Amino acid sequence: LLRTSGTVLVDWSHAVIGPAWVDAAGLIVDIIHTDPIDAPRWNRADDLVKRVAAEFSPSTHGGPAVEPIVDFLVAILGLSERECRNPDPAGMPQLREFQRERASRLRAWLWASEHLA
Fold first, then answer.
1. What confidence tier does 92 reach under pLDDT thresholds 50, 70, 90?
2. How many Å apart are CA 76 and CA 29, to the nearest integer?
3. How confident is the model over 33-47, as pLDDT tens digits?
4. First vs last Cα of the chain: how many Å apart?
């Protein structure tokens, strides 16, 4: 998908071409979503963002660029928040609750995160 402006977010279960860090950032989403809600877990997610940035993301200001990774996590939060407001699709009665919970966890992490500026 090529665009002259904006961002396109495609569900990870579909084949896509993108930056190398997207798969690792997707795992951070899963960790935030499934870990118990407490400060040490949020710190672990913050550390993972830094590790993914150090491994995959080009430097923009002398250090690893965490901004694109945080932006991706915020995009997943927004997508989950929007989609959870829709009616359940046929045959998938738990999908919207899953999306609500994921949005809630990502929001809580973001507010507690050192990356929120």
1. confident
2. 8
3. 887 666 666 778 888
4. 30
Report yes or no: 88 and 19 within 8 Å, Cβ to Cβ.
no
Please state the φ and ψ torsions of residue 67, each to the nearest 5 degrees.
-55, -45
User: What amino acid is encoded at 104 in this protein?
Assistant: S
Distance, in Å, from the CA atom of 61 to the CA atom of 34, rounded to the nearest integer, reads 32
Cα angle for residues 115, 4, 60 (degrees, 5° grid): 35
Identify the three-state secondary structure at position 97.
Answer: helix
Closest CA to 32 of 52, 60, 54: 52
Task: Give the pair of three-digit tokens for residue 113.
Answer: 């995160």
How far apart CA 65 and CA 56 sit, in angstroms, is: 9
Binning pLDDT at 50, 70 and 90, where does residue 101 land? very high
Tell me the one-letter amino acid at 106: L
Looking up tokens 């491994």, which residue turns up?
55
Sign of CA dihedral 48, 29, 18, 3: negative
Q: Are 86 and 109 in contact (CB under 8 A)?
A: no
